[in-house]
Write a structure and sequence with these properties.
Distance between the termini: 50 Å
Domain VOC: 7-132, 154-273
Number of strands: 16
Mean pLDDT: 94
Radius of gyration: 19 Å
Keywords: Dioxygenase, Oxidoreductase
Helix content: 10-25%
Largest sheet: 8 strands, mixed
GO molecular function, one term: dioxygenase activity
InterPro entries: Extradiol_RC_dioxygenase, Glyas_Bleomycin-R_OHBP_Dase, Glyas_Fos-R_dOase_dom, VOC_core
Structural class: alpha+beta
CATH class: Alpha Beta
Pfam families: Glyoxalase
Length: 326
């Protein structure tokens, strides 16, 4: 494998009511909405991007929220847990914070000495907050809802549930350039680059579990980082040469993407890092207005009429957040 990813780019999930989704991720988890746009393949629904202040790759959890979406089923063939990184000694604060919000949690210490708090979002999506013992140097989005000393630093890892480990492990190592890190029971950990938060994937082997059903409260796909278009094109050619069924390169406005499935069934994406979310609105205004790609802009009036109204807190603006913290 000549090309290797440096870590996670984003995770995309399917949610329910978009207002409830935004309230939870902005106010309860303290993330920033860095882009309000639509699903380019189905512009009748939003595509909401949550992350750090600028939406750097590796900080992003995104959603396609449909108000009447049926509930999915977590199981083999999908990413079943999305984990965020928080500072050491912050799990206790988060446990109380989530309890105050009426959210049940489960706290464990893993064999890698990572303090972990597991819970679900309002649509049943399985989430975790993980405190890596060596910490995480990434800067958080500093919001009045969650103080900076406890705030989420970005993605920590994802867990892929599979019936059989061999083919998935081979795909991660041979086609994504990940390195086997450790195994604890039926859980195998792989890491990109130097490892650590944002560069980890766990493979959970559950041969007797049912297959998952991708719908409300489940992950749609997991995206990995690639620096630029040239590297992505070379990577696609390499994957195709190995017999992997890969999509054409798709313009997602804020990055370019290719998609393919790992043998266990999870949809994977390779997304470029070099565009970003400030190409169509300034940093201070990220997420505040509905943004459409040029090919959908002529249908703006029709698209906006079909979307439910979305009210965002003023604290999504860094200037307002700074003033409220003062």
């Amino acid at each position: 494998m000549a090309i290797r990813t440096s870590g996670l780019h984003h995770v995309t999930a399917i949610g329910g009511d978009p207002q409830r989704n935004a309230d939870f991720y902005l106010r309860t988890l303290g993330l920033r909405l860095v882009k309000t746009t639509v699903n380019f393949d189905d512009p009748g629904t939003y595509h909401l991007y949550y992350g750090d202040e600028s939406g750097k790759p590796g900080s992003l959890l995104t959603f396609f929220p449909w108000r009447d979406v049926p509930g999915g089923r977590q199981g083999n063939g999908q990413a079943t847990t999305t984990s965020f990184s928080v500072p050491p000694n912050s799990i206790g604060w988060w446990q109380q914070h989530l309890a105050d919000a009426g959210i049940e949690t489960s706290r464990v210490t893993s064999t890698d000495n990572e303090d972990t708090l597991s819970f679900r979002d309002p649509d049943g999506l399985e989430l975790a907050l993980v405190a890596h013992p060596q910490g995480d140097p990434r800067d958080p989005w500093d919001t009045p809802f969650v103080p900076a000393e406890h705030a989420i630093r970005g993605l920590h890892s994802v867990t892929l549930s599979v019936a059989k480990e061999a083919a998935t492990a081979s795909m991660l190592a041979d086609n994504l350039g990940l390195t086997f890190h450790s195994q604890h029971g039926n859980r195998l950990r792989f890491e990109a680059a130097d490892g650590g938060p944002g560069a980890l994937v766990d493979v959970l082997v559950t041969p007797d579990a049912p297959d998952g059903l991708v719908a409300g409260g489940t992950v749609h796909h997991v995206a990995w980082k690639v620096p630029d278009d040239a590297t992505q094109r070379a990577w696609r050619e390499e994957l195709v040469g190995k017999g992997v069924q890969v999509t054409a390169i798709m313009d997602r406005q804020y990055f370019h993407s290719i998609y393919f499935r790992e043998p266990g069934g999870t949809l994977l994406e390779i997304a470029t890092e070099d565009i970003g979310f400030n190409i169509d609105e300034p940093l201070l205004e990220l997420g505040q207005a509905l943004k459409l790609p040029p090919w959908l802009e002529p249908n703006r009036e029709q698209i906006q009429a079909a979307l439910p109204k979305l009210n965002l807190p003023d604290e999504n603006n860094p200037e307002v957040a700074e003033r409220l913290r003062a």
